[in-house]
Amino acid sequence: MVLKVTPRDLEVLAPAGHYIALRIGFAFPMEEINAFPPRWVDHYTKNRLMIHDPVMHWGYTNTGTVRWSELAHKDTRGVLTMGAPFGLKFGLAVAVFDEKLDLGGQRSIASFARSDREFSDLEAKLLHTFIKRRHLEMVAPTNLTAAEIEALGMVRDGLRLKEIAFKLGIPKERSNSASRTLRLSSEQAPVHRPQLWPVSSS
Known about the structure:
Number of strands: 5
Order of helices and strands: HEEHHEHEEHHHH
Largest sheet: 5 strands, antiparallel
Strand content: 15-25%
Number of helices: 8
Strand order of the largest sheet: 2-1-5-4-3
C-alpha cells in the first residue's frame, strides 16, 4: 500500500509547525505556506535570522532531506537552538529542484518541526514525496492562448469571470465553457504571494 500525504496530514507528521515555499523564482515563491508558531515567526523575522539559518542555506544548495540535528555543526549563530523554546526541537528540511530544464529550473524548500522526537526515515520519505508532488503540480501551464493569458491578468486584478467574459467579448452562449477554462487556468497558473521567509530551529 502506498501512503499519500495530504496537507491535513502535515498537522500529524509535523505537529510543531511547518514552512513550505514552492517554486522559488528570482525573488518570490509561487506559493508560500507558513504554519510555524506566530511568536517564532515574529522572532525569526525581527532578528533577520534567515541569513544565518543553516536550514535555508542547506535548502538552496542541496536536494533531498536532512534532519536539523545534522546541520547543528553549521549553526554558528544558534538559530536552531533559538527555536527550542517555541516548541521547535526536532526538524526535517526538504529541498526539491527541477530535474528537467524545460520545467523552469526552480526550487522548492520546506521545513517541518516536532517537539517530541526526531523524524523517522519513513516520515522523511513521505514528506519528500509530498513536496516533490506539490512542486510538480505548480508547473505553469504552457498551452494558454493570448486571450487566456490576458484573462488571467484580469483574474489577478480581482475581476469576476462574467466581467472578464464581457471585456473579452465572449458571447453569452460560450461564457460557461470559457468560465470553466479560466477556472482551470487560474488554478494552475503561478500565484505570487508575500514572502515571509521563516524556517528553522531545533
